[in-house]
Design a protein that fits this description.
33% of the residues lie in helices and 23% in strands. The chain has helices at 48-65, 108-115, 124-127, 136-146, 150-155, 164-172, 185-188, 203-209, 244-251, 310-318, 328-333, 373-399, 416-426, 438-451, 457-462, 476-493; strands at residues 4-10, 14-20, 26-33, 45-46, 73-80, 85-89, 99-100, 159-163, 182-184, 194-195, 200-201, 218-220, 223-228, 237-243, 260-264, 268-275, 286-291, 299-306, 343-345, 363-365, 406-409, 430-433, 466-470. The strands form seven sheets. Strands 17-18-16-15-21-22-23 form a seven-stranded mixed beta sheet. Strands 3-2-1-5-14-13 form a six-stranded mixed beta sheet, sandwiched between helices. A two-stranded antiparallel ribbon has the order 4-7. Helix 13 links the parallel strand 21 (406-409) and strand 22. Helix 1 crosses helix 6 (164-172), helix 10 (310-318) runs antiparallel to helix 12 (373-399) and helix 12 crosses helix 13 (416-426). The chain starts with a strand and ends in a 5-residue tail after the last helix.
Length: 498
């Protein structure tokens, strides 16, 4: 068997390929950003063809940099930004419009129409999700309504709809020359269209959304050999698919009920393994699929999603120009001892968990003439920690357990100030693994299990090693005063849009 396995991590801002060895250590990686397209306020788009071309390019570059060939890889796992919707013609292979990104809020009216008198929880008992612009089902309904020619293509059986994983697999396996149209349970569970218990598209919901089932991908497990790549990757086994946050949960080896992780990226996503039955949330969380390994029973999770965390640092850099690189935010924030009394609620596209308020908008509260750009930078970082605490508290209520630590990963975990404050505001230790690329690692693990590169979950758990631990030191009265200020600021952000 070849000695390596690859993972394609297609994220919100970039595509990355990492090649791992038998011990789960990265051998080489390649990464490429793609454009963020904002045609109107609240609209966020990506170019699907750019994403596909970048994805293929980073796989080939990672192979070249490691001096390996396709034959040296046992398989490829794919992980992706989950709720972003793509629509393309299976005749031409071209997308019929830009991908609608998970942060996009254009489907607010559709969600309100579907909610009707029954409210945003109309489908929650079947799909585990509230009606929200966040999820890809309403985006697909919007495409069929609003994109010229989309409905006609669907009626002729020529339109394919899916999330980014489906778009990539279809192209990798031949595209118009027999490409496979499929997805896994973790991505399907983020559409609002899949029955959580039966792991099938819900025909009644499809009818109400106006989405023909024939346009959608086949739902498969997260770990199996789906097919072979063609062209420049000819013969490579595509063997794992996981939505990015589920992949991070898997990469953190959170295989037991009660295990939890938080990923700090463009957004922030806290997932808790809830076992082999879906756990309904009473506190604003999402009930979702964690993973399904081959023929084994599906594993479920509770999730709290925050739309804007790392993206807020990018906003500070790109929109305000207060920093020239994302790494500078920590240096700037360290120039002051506290936030100076200001709070930044980044509800740029509404508030996600636990509020689910699409009419909220971002606010900076508590401004005085004392405030400097250093205080603003600190408030930007602290916003991530406060939002994580809100989700963790909701999760403990739903799962009826008290977490005694939190595993963390993602780009922002290199920020020492943020991780220190996170431990302080949560009052639990925060633990980072030695390998922080856990999203890609989870996809590699899923593929590796399918092809026999790794034998079991027990073996995978042996590879997890603690890299750094932050322990809380903040006084209780200080902690609660900070959090009280945050809650007041959140209240100011509500109902901004009529």
């Amino acid at each position: 068997m070849p000695d390596y396995i690859a993972a394609l991590d297609q994220g919100t801002t970039s595509s990355k390929c990492i090649i791992f060895d038998q011990n789960g250590n990265p051998l080489s990686s390649a990464q490429q950003e793609h454009r963020q397209i904002f045609p109107r306020p609240g609209w966020v788009e990506h170019d699907p063809m750019e994403i596909w071309e970048n994805s293929l390019a980073v796989i080939l570059r990672a192979l070249k940099d490691s001096r390996l060939s396709v034959q040296d890889l046992s398989g490829l796992g794919i992980t992706n930004q989950r709720e972003t919707a793509v629509a393309w013609s299976k005749i031409t292979g071209k997308a019929i419009c830009n991908a609608i990104v998970w942060q996009d809020t254009r489907t607010d009216q559709i969600c309100q129409e579907l909610a009707g008198e029954q409210g945003q929880d109309r489908y929650r008992s079947r799909v585990g999700l509230p009606l929200s612009t966040y999820f890809s089902g309403p985006k697909m309904a919007w495409i069929l309504r609003e994109v010229p020619g989309a409905r006609d293509l669907a009626d002729r059986g020529e339109l394919l709809l899916g999330t980014i994983d489906s778009w990539l697999v279809w192209n990798l396996t031949g595209g118009i020359k027999g490409g496979l149209h499929l997805t896994d349970v973790s991505n399907a569970s983020r559409t609002m269209l899949m029955d959580l218990n039966h792991l099938k598209w819900d025909k009644d919901i499809l009818a109400e959304f106006g989405i023909p089932e024939g346009t959608l991908p086949e739902i498969r497990s997260s770990s199996e050999i789906y097919g072979l790549a063609t062209d420049s990757l000819n013969g490579l086994q595509i063997a794992g698919i996981l939505g990015d946050q589920q992949a991070a949960l898997f990469g953190q080896t959170c295989f037991d009920p009660g295990d939890a992780k938080n990923t700090y990226g463009t957004g922030c996503f806290l997932l808790l393994n809830s076992g082999q039955r879906p756990t309904p949330s009473q506190h604003g969380l999402l009930t979702t699929l964690a993973y399904k390994i081959g023929d084994s029973k599906a594993v479920y999770a509770l999730e709290g999603s925050v739309a804007i965390t790392g993206a807020l640092v990018q906003w500070l850099r790109d929109n305000l120009g207060l920093i020239s690189s994302s790494a500078e935010v920590e240096e700037l924030a360290e120039q002051v001892d506290d936030n100076g009394g200001i709070y930044f609620v980044p509800a740029f596209s509404g508030l996600f968990a636990p509020y689910w308020q699409s009419t909220a908008r971002g606010v900076i509260a508590g401004l005085t003439r004392y405030i400097t750009k250093a205080h603003l930078a600190r408030a930007v970082l602290e916003a991530t920690a406060y939002q994580t605490r809100e989700i963790l508290e909701a999760m403990e209520k739903d799962a009826r357990i008290k977490l005694n630590s939190l595993k963390v990963d993602g780009g922002m975990v290199s920020n020492q100030l943020l991780m220190t404050f996170q431990a302080d505001i949560l009052n639990v230790p925060v633990i980072r693994p030695t390998i922080t690329e856990t999203t890609a690692l989870g996809a590699a693990y899923a593929a590796g299990l399918a092809v026999g590169f790794w034998k079991s979950l027990v073996e995978l758990r042996e590879y997890w090693k603690e890299g750094q631990r932050w322990v809380p030191t903040m006084r209780e009265d200080v902690r609660e005063a900070y959090f009280k200020g945050w809650k007041k600021a959140v209240a100011r952000s509500m109902d901004w849009v009529d």
